[in-house]
Design brief:
The chain is mainly β and about 170 residues long. It has helices at about 125-135, 150-155, 160; strands spanning about 20-25, 30-35, 45-50, 60, 65-70, 75-80, 80-85, 90-95, 100-105, 110-115, 165-170. The strands form three sheets. The protein has a six-stranded antiparallel β-sheet with strand order 1-2-3-10-5-8, covered by helices on one side.
Length: about 170
């Protein structure tokens, strides 16, 4: 018996940090650790670093499931109207089409988001959005100055291009 995955020509791949895209997103640092193109568009991994108040508005991914893995610090997660406290070591699973958002409530926080698309004709969009629409970080630090990037209204307007929708204001710390 042959399994479909054994027919792939892909090999292991190292992605050095110097080849990873990093952006300043809404006051935090988002590093695309694994772009969709490296996984045959099966999933994307993004590492987020932020301080208290780093947040996103409530939003919905139309065809991406999202997993949050908190490495350091604490997030308040809102998922489908329920609030959760996610401390270091916690994992939050957010199925596609479910409204969600987060806010950092600890002095500092570091977490991963994994974006996957279970439908075979879809691909993760979050890394495409970050690469194309958000100013690249000048250093692997939190932004220390106004980077002149897109404002929240512009980010919301981009939703139709990248298969996400605004669902409400961001949670507060």
């Amino acid at each position: 018996m042959t399994f479909p995955d054994t027919a792939r020509d892909e090999k292991g791949r190292l992605i050095p940090e110097s080849e990873q895209t990093a952006v300043w997103l809404l006051g935090g640092l988002a590093q695309i650790r694994v772009p969709g193109e490296a996984t045959g568009n099966a999933f994307t991994v993004v590492q987020h670093t932020g301080v208290r108040g780093y947040t996103t508005p409530l939003h919905i991914h139309d065809y991406e499931d999202e997993v949050f893995m908190v490495l350091d610090g604490t997030l308040r997660m809102v998922c489908d109207g329920q609030e959760f406290v996610a401390e270091a070591g916690s994992t939050m699973i957010v199925p596609r089409t479910v409204p969600h958002g987060f806010v950092t409530t600890s002095p500092n926080c570091r977490f991963l988001t994994i974006h996957s698309t279970p439908q075979p004709d879809r691909r993760p969009q979050f890394d495409l959005f970050l690469k194309a629409e958000i100013p690249h970080a000048r250093a692997l630090t939190l932004p220390t100055e106004d980077v002149g990037g897109p404002d929240l209204d512009h980010i919301i307007a981009l939703g139709t291009t990248y298969a996400y929708r605004y669902a409400g204001p961001p949670p507060t710390p």
